[in-house]
Amino acid sequence: MQTKSFVLPKNEIPRKWYNILADIKMNPPLGPDGKPVSPDMLAPVFPMNLIEQEVSSERWIDIPEAVLDVLSIWRPAPLTRATAFEKALGTPAKIYFKNEGMSPPGSHKPNTAVPQAYYNKVFGIDNITTETGAGQWGSALSFACAQYGLTCKVFMVRISFDQKPYRKAMMQTWGGHCIASPSSETKAGREALEKDPDTPGSLGIAISEAVEAAVGDTSGKTRYSLGSVLNHVMLHQTIIGLEAKKQFEMAGDYPDIIIGCAGGGSNFAGLAFPFVLDKMNGKPIEIYPVEPKACPTMTRAPFAYDHGDTAGYTPLLPMHSLGHNFVPAPIHAGGLRYHGMAPTVSQLVNEGLLTPKSVGQMAAYEAGVLWARTEGFIPAPETTSAIAQVVKEARKAKEEGKEKTIVFSFSGHGLLDLGAYEKYLAGELSDFTLEDAEIEKSTEILKNYPTPETIRSR
Ligand SMILES: *Cc1c(COP(=O)(O)O)cnc(C)c1O
């Protein structure tokens, strides 16, 4: 039997996160007055210890023992060679995947939910609010809050709340309180319901509700939490890439190509950032964040200042954005239907350290099904986008007769997304095309905001 999985012993789990802000310069987030946001302006929304991480430029940040205790329920996560998939593709490329589908909620998201719950706890916070679209983030945060005895309130977009009852049941099992958004509990929710009592809801409204519920709690014991995009989220996810580096040493190998699907950018960044550091130091690596053609933030949208949410409550962030009112086609990869991209990932795209790619929904499911039939694990719809890019690279390696080493982030399993597979297998899914005119229209709003500077860090 060939060694397929490289499993780190428990005591080899990384003890520090890698903070890319030590190695790149960024445009600052801006407030409503167009001036940089100061950390204390964020204090009603996030606990100060997380705000400090958000703005820190320390290269290495210690992972607290109490966080490692919980992460070690499923970490270190295996780095596995996809030999059966390679064989099916007839490629000389070596394909490795970092399996983030082994966590209790089934994705990479608890890598940040756990430290976020911990830092809230030690700051004296009792309750966390958040929003969730398809339910992956809400379930990760419910799990994490249960570990530290915090209450968790999740505003779940109405349409998913109705369509995905099992995600809700997961949250409830972990003690989370999941309510449909818009709700009558907040002003933002009541206004949305007044406008349209039958609204399917949106992530934008749900964010507004969750922020309002946190800031509005006068006891001072409630804060809000976000599952992607922000610097501290990317920081927490770097445990993925730091483990992978050690595992490549065990395997006696090193990647030529690194791939991850990117919605807000966090699982991609988690795998890629520790290798970006090597690339800055001269390693010849190709690094590809992959987005859906239906929501082409990095490949077709401008780098601009925009709000992170639809309601415009958040500071202006420097990022690739389709405009905060952009509504992507209803592709099943719900986690990739975000109008913006993490500022850190966006900045690295600008600097040419990352090369963004896009794939269509049909190619993604085709790759996902081939994956399931060879490697066994059924990938999350989001993850299939990364796999589709892996297929392209593996075919290219075959044409060129090159033995490339490819690694990708297997961001989660798809066992709660079988409805989407059912539709694909019944021939009911299709690709969507997005016209230039639509992008021009949705990005019109960005002209109202300041233009970020072109910064070259190196
Ligand atoms: C949420 C999610 C994503 C997208 O979020 P990122 O922040 O871009 O990683 C991708 N894959 C899975 C399985 C997810 O749950």
From TrEMBL:
Pathway: Amino-acid biosynthesis; L-tryptophan biosynthesis; L-tryptophan from chorismate: step 5/5
Listed transmembrane segments: none
Key words, A-Z: Amino-acid biosynthesis, Aromatic amino acid biosynthesis, Lyase, Pyridoxal phosphate, Tryptophan biosynthesis
Residues modified as N6-(pyridoxal phosphate)lysine: 109
Catalyzed chemical reaction(s): (1S,2R)-1-C-(indol-3-yl)glycerol 3-phosphate + L-serine = D-glyceraldehyde 3-phosphate + L-tryptophan + H2O
Matching Pfam families: PALP (PF00291)
GO CC list: cytoplasm
A Gene Ontology molecular function term of the record: L-serine hydro-lyase (adding indole, L-tryptophan-forming) activity
Boundaries of every Tryptophan synthase beta chain-like PALP domain copy: 74-412
Enzyme type, top EC level: lyase
Cofactor: pyridoxal 5'-phosphate
Function: The beta subunit is responsible for the synthesis of L-tryptophan from indole and L-serine.
Matching NCBIfam families: PRK12391.1, trpB_rel
Protein name stated in the entry: Tryptophan synthase beta chain
